[in-house]
Design a protein that fits this description.
Elements (H helix, E strand, L loop, with lengths): L4 H20 L9 H29 L4 H28 L6 H24 L16
Helix pairs in contact: 1-2, 2-4, 3-4
Length: about 140
């Protein structure tokens, strides 16, 4: 979903970490090295994005009869992705001299993605009364 050049470069770094970690069979409960930690964070990042996509799909399906609303949610999502790319990219740049840069940038992406998913849930998948939400409350 995030399409910025910083994320392309970060994705390439994660991919190389993933290849190295896959050969070792990383146990994320026991991850210690930077490569292992980044591999595990990369997996967590992928899960967070999958959950965001699932919540967006339900929102779009639920409101398909209101194309104006769907268009506005899509535009807001694009704006949010631009913000997340820029913000997490700036964290990567700030720490560019250290091996922690990938860890902090990936962690930023996870944190912002979870916050966004929760905001979407609260805004479009809950009700004003005691009716249960359309989907369960996502992790923050």
């Amino acid at each position: 979903m995030i399409k910025g050049i910083r994320w392309v470069l970060l994705g390439a770094s994660i991919f190389s970490f993933a290849l190295a970690a896959e050969e070792k069979g990383v146990d994320c409960e026991q991850a210690v090295s930077t490569l292992e930690v980044n591999e595990c964070l990369g997996q967590e990042f992928d899960l967070a994005w999958a959950e965001l996509a699932r919540y967006l799909d339900v929102i779009y399906a639920r409101h398909k009869e209101d194309p104006l609303l769907v268009d506005e949610i899509r535009a807001a999502q694009q704006d949010w992705e631009t913000y997340a790319d820029s913000h997490c990219g700036s964290i990567y740049t700030y720490w560019r001299e250290g091996s922690i840069r990938n860890t902090l940038a990936i962690s930023c992406g996870i944190r912002l993605t979870r916050q966004r998913t929760h905001e979407l849930w609260q805004s479009f998948l809950t009700h004003m009364d005691s009716t249960p939400p359309v989907l369960p409350e996502p992790a923050r």
